[in-house]
Design goal:
8 strands, single chain, alpha/beta, three-stranded mixed beta sheet, Alpha-Beta Plaits
Length: 329
């Protein structure tokens, strides 16, 4: 007589369940331009729970795409493992810019998709100045409200700091010329100028705006990263031993020191390399390059090449012989 214990049990490892879920997600993304980034699975008491992180094509609905992947993962994983499966968790971790243009007519962000020029400056939200100003105003309002409530509702005397402040303002107010009043007035003017500058200046000076595929998209590139890319291309030029790169919003300033080679040839090669790198950054407003080169201490200009003798019977070959014959006579 045999029973369930005699027949044994089958266990499916979590690694196998994770591989099945990842493969099911890949099947759901075939032809869409998306890809699977990572997957995970847990098996507890004969029940499996899976999660997959995917990159969906830009231009489509991330919600609908994630639901479609989740349905296929649940159906495929449940049938292949034979275990009850909780609803899979699908996380959209990135947007793929190589996907096809969706049929709804929304322009995709593939290599051939048109791009639009965003603003040349990246505007800052000014969170820190706003937070500091709001905290100061809130603290002053709370102190004043507490003192007013204490005076009018609790019938207490006014706070000592409020009476001193009113007395000081009476003596050193705007209508009374004094050194302290001038200092406070100058401080108020400077604070107002700083707030106006923060309101009208874009900020984020370390970021460069990139060309974007459509409205509502914001893309930036750090100036330090752009400078590293330009420097990596410049140091590949033959003869260059040192370079300094500074990337601005309108200019890319490159200073180069070279150890050998003709000065003009090195300068033209460096300029071509800088132009190619800047054009490949995809900036909304490409800055112009400015290259300055300087030779090292041991640099010597290359000697001009001597003309090579031509083949026998040509004027180039006969001319030296005729000159030598005349000179010997």
């Amino acid at each position: 007589m045999t029973g369930p214990a005699a027949r044994g049990t089958t266990e499916i490892a979590e690694r196998a369940v994770r591989r099945i879920a990842e493969q099911a997600a890949k099947e759901a993304l075939i032809g869409t331009g998306g890809r699977v980034l990572a997957g995970r699975a847990t098996v507890r008491a004969g029940q499996a729970s899976v999660g997959v992180e995917v990159a969906l094509p830009y231009g489509g609905s991330a919600d609908a795409g994630g639901e479609a992947v989740g349905r296929h993962v649940a159906d495929r994983t449940g049938r292949l493992t034979g275990m009850p499966l909780s609803p899979p968790r699908i996380r959209v971790g990135a947007l793929s810019l190589t996907g096809p243009v969706p049929a709804s007519g929304t322009a995709g962000a593939g290599p051939g998709a048109p791009t639009r020029r965003s603003s040349g400056r990246v505007w800052s939200e000014r969170r820190l100045p706003i937070a500091v100003l709001a905290a100061a105003v809130l603290a002053a309002a709370v102190l004043l409200l507490r003192d007013v409530v204490a005076v009018h509702l609790l019938h207490q005397g006014p706070a000592h700091w409020r009476t001193r402040a009113l007395t000081w303002l009476t003596v050193n107010g705007p209508g009374v010329p004094s050194g302290a009043g001038r200092v406070l007035g100058a401080a108020a003017v400077l604070a107002g100028a700083a707030l106006l500058l923060a309101a009208f200046a874009p900020g984020h000076r370390r970021l460069l705006a990139l060309a974007v595929p459509g409205p509502g998209v914001r893309a930036t590139l750090g100036r330090a990263s752009a400078a590293r890319l330009v420097r990596a291309a410049v140091v590949e030029v033959p003869g260059v031993v040192h370079s300094r790169v500074r990337v601005g919003r309108r200019r890319v300033r490159v200073r180069v020191r070279f150890a050998f080679g003709e000065r003009r040839a090195v300068e033209e090669t460096v300029e071509a390399s800088v132009t190619a790198v800047v054009a490949g950054l995809g900036l909304a407003r490409a800055p112009r390059g400015r290259v300055r080169i300087r030779p090292t201490a041991g640099w010597q200009p290359p000697e001009p090449l001597e003309p090579r003798p031509g083949p026998a019977g040509t004027p180039e070959a006969d001319e030296p012989k005729e000159r030598e014959h005349v000179g010997s006579a």
